Amino acid sequence: MNDDFTAPDDPTESSDSTGRSWSDADARRNVRLPAEGDDKYTRGVLGIRTGSSMYPGAAVLGVEAAARAGAGMIRYLGPDRATDFVLQRRPEVVPVDGRVQAWLLGSGMDAASRSDADTAALRHALQQGVPVVIDSGALDLVGEVTGPAVITPHYRELARVLSATGNSITPEQVSSDAAGWARRAAERLGVTVLLKGNTTWVADRTGVLVRVRSGPAWLATAGSGDVLGGILGAFAASHADRIVGSAAAFADVAATAAHVHGLAGERASGGGPLVALDIAQAVSPTIAALLRD
After folding, report:
1. b/e per residue 151-180 (b: at least 16 CB within 10 A)
2. Phi, psi dihedral angles at 40 (to 5 degrees)
3. Residue 4 has what pLDDT?
4. Backbone angles phi, psi at 37, to 5 degrees
5. What count of other Cβ atoms lies within 10 Å of the Cβ of residue 108?
6. Which listed residue, 29, 34, 247, 254, has the most CB atoms within 10 A of its CB?
């Protein structure tokens, strides 16, 4: 973590927010195709600790999206109620701890009501040195990660994380300069930041700044972020060696996940309303169409 962070004199002053627009061609280059010699382990094993007794659906959505985004194997480790729902939906998921290439943590969890056992399990995952995707209910633990990490907050969550570091930031300040605050957060926290919003911004501490199409406005629906987390988790597992070996690789993978999420939203919507499970189910044909193009 970089302790030299200071907020600008005027936090609402806009930064250079041009960034690089992520394209279909960029995304294609960052979708790992399985080779003839691959098996479920070499394609990427994703560990998932998400969901809670109150929000078991977040676990189902993330697992569904990860499975459809190409994870070779998924280990789901969560509360019994969520595990039952996950296995009913995806019986191939393995509810047993073991070696993973990446983790997805925190979706559908509440840091304020998290048990000590859940907190200890999250910390154990954060300290394994593998790529980690950190969503809402684990954002308070970002300072304990030891390997490559990407956080996936919305404006309010990012403001809360930054304020916890001693700099009082409001959601309005973040939303007024989303690109700038994504970059500052990446520098401050030492992680890749995927800031969700009308435009998704991806930034990392190497100076990378990418803007990503966020799909139709219908994507602003409950559970959509859980689906994005699952897509990103699957891509992180399949690109784990690359992410560990390159400081900038996680930004490419995160931007690709956001791009696929937006395209899947367009496919699922067809111009009308959708629900989060529709997005997850559209991920596989979306990737297929992207690769064909």
Report:
1. bbbebebbbbbbeeeeeebbeebbbebbbb
2. -65, -25
3. 32
4. -85, 0
5. 27
6. 254
How far is the C-alpha of 183 from the C-alpha of 174, rounded, in Å?
A: 11
**pLDDT digit string, tens, across residues 95-116:** 999 999 999 999 999 999 999 9
- 191/8: higher pLDDT: 191
116-144 per-position pLDDT tens digit: 999 999 999 999 999 999 999 999 999 99
Q: What domains, with CATH codes, occur in the chain? A: 33-154+211-292 (3.40.1190.20)
Closest of 90, 126, 16, 29 to residue 281, by C-alpha: 90
pLDDT higher than threshold 80 for residue 34: yes
Confirm if 256 and 286 have CB atoms less than 8 A apart: no
The CA distance from 102 to 270, in Å, is: 33
Find the farthest-apart pair of alpha carbons in the chain and give their distance in angstroms, rounded.
Answer: 55
74 closest CA partner among 109, 119, 51, 104: 104
For the cut 60, the answer to whether the pLDDT of residue 9 exceeds it is no
Nearest to 30 by CA among 280, 288, 255, 285: 255
User: pLDDT band at 17, cuts 50/70/90?
Assistant: low
